[in-house]
Amino acid sequence: MSIILFGPFIQKSWQMTDTENSSHQMEELGGFKLGDRFEFEFSIDNVAQHCFAELSGDHNPIHLDAEYAKRCGYESEVVYGGLLIGKISQLMGMMAPGRAGIWTGLKIDFHRPLYLNQTAFLSSEVSQISVGTRSMMLKIRVSAIGKLIAAGTAMATLHSKQQ
Is the omega angle on the peptide bond into residue 8 within 30 degrees of 0, that is, cis? Predict the structure, then answer.
């Protein structure tokens, strides 16, 4: 499954020309440079899962009922994809770009489920920078027990005036 979210600041798909890419490879943007990594561990508990169910209105038992999830072939309750996106929001809002910019797009593919209380690892790497548009792209990966849960890219635009 793929989810593609584009904010109001993305007018076209992200394409960086070879000329732009090669001429800006060593440049920094707001203190960020190619190859910078940002990562953290997390887990989703039953409280977060039920809060999301109430906020979203999604009460699918695959997310809320362990016995139902097991009858469907899963180990236990499947964490909502929206909660994984919430963790990406934490990364984008607090680390890269953090206060320096705004998250403008996301493309994510879910490869396998994350289960309640399972420790996951969210990692990201700055993969493209465009000084001209004050934009950057990050490769995003979520993994658990050495297996890929989700992967994709997130885009951000840095503010023209820093606070």
Answer: no
Residue 151 dihedral angles phi and psi, to the nearest 5°:
-150, 150
Residue 56 falls within a domain, yes or no? no
| Domain-located, residue 53 | no
84 torsion bin: left (phi>0), alpha (psi -120 to 50), beta (else): alpha
- Is the four-CA dihedral 143, 148, 154, 158 of positive or negative sign? positive
pTM over 0.85: no
- Tell me, what CATH number does 105's domain have? 3.10.129.10
Report the domain count for the chain: 1
In tens digits, the chain (163 residues) has pLDDT values of: 444 444 333 333 333 333 344 444 456 888 899 999 999 999 999 999 999 999 999 999 999 999 999 999 999 999 999 999 999 999 999 998 888 889 999 999 999 999 999 999 999 999 999 999 999 999 999 999 999 999 999 999 998 876 5
Residue range of the domain that includes 121: 2-44+81-158
